[in-house]
Amino acid sequence: MANTPNILTLNGVEVEDTYAEASPLACARVILTAETLSLVQSAAMASTGHASSVIGCDAEAGIDRLLTPAETPDGRPGASLLFFGFSRPALEQSLVARIGQGILPCPTTSAYNGLPIDPAKCLQVGSKIRFFGDGWQISKLLDGKRYWRVPVMDGEFVIEEIFGTGKGVAGGNLIIQGKTRAAALEAAEAAVAAIALVPGVILPFAHGIVRAGSKVGSRYPKLKASTNAQYCPSIRSQVKTELHPQCQASYELVIDGLDLASVEVSMRVGLHAAARPGVVRISAGNYGGKLGPFLIQLRGLIGQIGAETIPC
Amino acid sequence: MLILNRRDSHPIPLEADCIRPDTMASLDAWSISNLPVWHGNISARLGDYFDIIGNASDGDVVVRGDCSRVKHLGCGMTAGTLRVESPVGMHAGADMRGGLLRVEGDADDWLGAEMHGGQIIVAGNAGNSVGSAYLGANRGMRGGEILVSGNAGNEVGATLRRGLIVIGGDVGNFPGINLLAGTLIVLGTCGVRPGAAMRRGSILLPHYTPELLCTFAPAGPLDSVFPELYFRHLQRMVTKAGIPGLTRQPWPQMHRHAGDLASLGKGEILCPA
Fold first, then answer.
1. Does residue B254 carry a pLDDT above 50?
2. How far A97 CA sits from the closest chain B CA (Å)?
3. How many other C-beta atoms are found inside a 10 Å radius of the C-beta of residue B229?
4. Interface ipTM
5. How far is CA A247 from the centre of its chain?
6. What is the pLDDT of residue A304?
7. Bigger pLDDT: B273 vs A139
8. Which residue, A90, A116, A161, A183, has fewest beta-carbon neighbours within 10 Å?
């Protein structure tokens, strides 16, 4: 039996008057560069792989955006990568492993810090990866930043010694319910494309879209999370469903950002992009306000997208 | 802003290590005038040789007049800006800890000797032993940056421990002798035996291939972004310092020579093939 939530409308699409519940996570930004864009993309994919959710991964990570040579410290093509973890020590461990296994081995790459440094809250990343140099590594202090030059088989891997952290916001989300699976997927992809233009946010799941939305816990004690049955159309007659009666499929977009404002902006542009024919309702996931301190009301995102909210 | 006008020049050196913006910032004109100096072997007051105008409460000190025989300008300074609109004598910026020393003319020997931090910019040439260790000391410059637009003398960066020295023109013999770490960049040519006895550190000679000691082992072209990071940093430095001509010429790919193998051997000289 369906609930009867308060409903707003946007472009003829129902928008549930609810909120997304997000929580703070430690975050870091890595500026990756390489000789070619292709190498940048390979290293970026490798280092941000298997990092969709801290429920089952060591971190949440993704490509924030690609950078032009003019935007990188060494004048080569690059990418801004965002990493989120439960704590700074956990994030440091993830970064050392991910840069060490995903970026360091990829030809011609370098890695630089992308956030301001607070000495009390920074991560020792380059200072640990340098040991790969087995005593042949060289330190360079330039403009107050220490770099490590680690000899590798095609020359040198250059990495900054410490990386700054911030208090990121993880768990911004939208749930898109479509009349058909194809319509829901098309709307979700449109929202992903719009959110990709927002700097400082990532969609950590594959293709930016989640079909396996989860709830906390399970009837099986070993599982921390299990399928969100309320949104599964094939069992809608057996559970207390949240799906619109005309909905045949739903997708979730999960958004992590460097701050609350960027998550809100990305949810806003995603909401507007997804509100298109074929979509019957858009809602958001929350835990009744018990999990995270950031409650992002969909009602507040419906207004027209102004110049101040559209990133460039 | 505090302006110190040297009244007249004199061949006997004036030792004025009191001219530093950090200590002058809290002093009034009378106190500044009474700061001790040595003129040869005669103890005197700063006010005996300089006209004093304004105060240094904003940390900004300008020195005018002939200072080519004034020693220890900015010696040990920790903050503020000291701008000298003439040549300066020996030991300018020695043991400096912070702030900016800008010399519009030439600088004599021991510029920035054993400095720990801050920045020195010289629009003209510099003498011998820029950023070096004093005789008997085991470590030279330990931090900060020295940028000399023109040429420099012998033993630039001797026993350099940390920091960056950039010479826009040519240098004399033994640049980077006994280098411990840090980076020395020479954009012109150099004299004999660069990097002799160096343990670690880097000497970059992007536009000149010197005759190296046989205790440097060639390692072929260096494929690294590290020279590019320095080139870009240098571009920012010279733009900020208003000496844009220094980095007009891009750096070619450089070859690495590891050495000095007669010492620890973990240093390097980078130069064209």
1. yes
2. 22
3. 22
4. 0.91
5. 27
6. 62
7. A139
8. A116
B199 interfaces chain A, CB cutoff of 8 Å = no
One-letter amino acid at A32 equals L
CB A193 within 8 A of CB A207: no
Q: Does B255 touch chain A (CB under 8 A)?
A: no
How many Å apart are CA A74 and CA A70, to the nearest integer?
A: 9
Can you tell me the distance from the alpha carbon of B124 to that of B122, in angstroms, rounded to the nearest whole number? 6
Write down the domain spans for chain B.
109-271
- Distance CA(A262)–CA(A170), nearest Å, equals 11
Strand order in the sheet with B70-71: B42-45, B36-39, B14-15, B70-71
User: How far does A170 lie from chain B, in Å, by closest CA?
Assistant: 34
- In this model, does residue A307 exceed pLDDT 50? no
Per-residue pLDDT of B81-134, as tens digits, reads 999 999 999 999 999 999 999 999 999 999 999 999 999 999 999 999 999 999
How much is the mean pLDDT over chain A?
Answer: 92
Residues A154-182, buried b or exposed e (16+ Cβ, 10 A)? ebbbbbbbbbbbbebbbbbbbbbbbbeee
- Largest Cα separation within chain B, whole Å, is 62
Does B162 reach chain A within 8 Å, measured CB to CB? yes
Query: CB B229 to CB A33 under 8 A?
Result: no
* Secondary structure of B6-55 in HEC code, one letter for each residue: ECCCCCCCEECCCCCHHHHCCCCHHHHHCCEEEECCEEEEHHHCEEEEEC
Q: List residues of chain A with CB under 8 Å from any CB of chain B.
A: 33, 73-76, 108, 110, 138-143, 147, 149, 154-156, 158
Is the CB of B224 less than 8 angstroms away from the CB of A158? yes
> Do the bridges between strand A13-16 and strand A279-283 make them parallel or antiparallel, or are there none, so unpaired?
parallel
> What's the per-residue H, E or C state across A36-74?
CHHHHHHHHHHHCCCCCCCCCCCCEEEEEEEECHHHCCC
> Which residue in A73, A108, A155 is closest to B222 by CB distance?
A155
Instruction: Name all domains of chain A by residue range, CATH numbers in brackets.
Output: 7-22+168-301 (3.30.70.520), 26-166 (3.30.70.520)
pLDDT tens figures, A89-124: 999 999 999 999 999 999 999 999 999 999 999 999
β-pair type (A294-297, A110-113): unpaired
d(CA B72, CA B17): 5
**Residue closest to A97 by CA, chosen among A121, A125, A117, A139:** A125
Inter-chain CB pairs, A–B, below 8 Å: 47
Alpha carbon of B192: minimum distance to chain A alpha carbons (Å): 26
Closest CA to B35 of B26, B50, B46: B46
Closest CA to B38 of B16, B22, B18: B16
Separation CA A52–CA A179 (nearest Å): 27
Cβ of A142 within 8 Å of Cβ of B164? The answer is: yes
Cβ atoms A284, A213 nearer than 8 A: no
pLDDT of B68 strictly over 80:
yes
The verdict on a CB contact (< 8 Å) between A74 and B232 is yes
Could A74 and B200 be called an inter-chain contact, meaning their C-beta atoms sit closer than 8 Å?
no
Phi, psi of B147 (to 5 degrees): -125, 115
CA distance A254 to A267: 9
